[in-house]
Amino acid sequence: MKCNGKKVVTLNNFHWNENACADKTEYEKISMLFQLQQSYVERTKITFSIVLLRWHPTCRFPDMPSSEQYNLLYDYISKQVRNSDTVFRDEQCKTIIIMLAFSGTQEGRHFLHRVFNAANHMLKDMIGNASPAFVATVSEIANAHCTLEEVLETSIGYLDKLETQPPNAVLPIEQFAKFDTELLKVSIIEENTITISILKNLFSNMQISNFDLQVQTFADGYEFLQSNWYRSGHTHIVLVNDILPRKNGIEIMNYLRSLPNDEKYIIALMSKRASEDAIMYAFDNGADAYFSKPFNLKLVETQIKNIVRRLRQ
Fold this sequence. Notes:
alpha/beta
């Protein structure tokens, strides 16, 4: 169902603390949407948030039945969300649940601040002299491990406790906001032991958000291919010298680019040659970066971090 162009879903008589759901079809839709959002988070590291909202116990509308008060809140919130957001509700707990796409805790708090501030004006004709008051939680979802049931059961529990607090309290729930750490492989293929030591030290101490770097070194391309270190689905940075005793940098680059899912390889060619022709040849054959020796380590670090960041976009 849509309300003013917004997605609105009703979960009739569904209680999040029970396994049984009276409306399995609607629950499956919401669960699927939750999982789709999690997949997007896993791929892009752009979070979403689950907001739970209900009237504060001090908010009383003497001339309005409780069911109408709940429907009033539901209709009001449905008009406040963006087209990318979804509103649904828990009938038993009298709670409005909002899935805010592309939003973290801060965006969720801003949304609720706007909702709270606009309530007096927007609801004046319906509630008369009554003063609207709410309680709310915001859960930022930053990983694919938590389940919809865990998020909602946790939020409902905190929401119940907030009813003893002053009106318009908002509680951020942080336990689902930690990103998963992803393995990032780094291969340094170089015969010069000093260069190997410098680069290994650089990457062993490099900090890239949400990645755990594992570094391996190889004396030439043949040793690299024999190791099978490159055979995995992980993102893989390959720094390779263009001239090597066995299997040079161009041969390694051509081989990796011939493999399925070759986009997982970030290939940086290292060379003493700094001519425009040499650089263009490397990029034309699949290099993501080109470092002329002697190279600036800060430049190497910055370029590699920028390439990894763009993978998330």
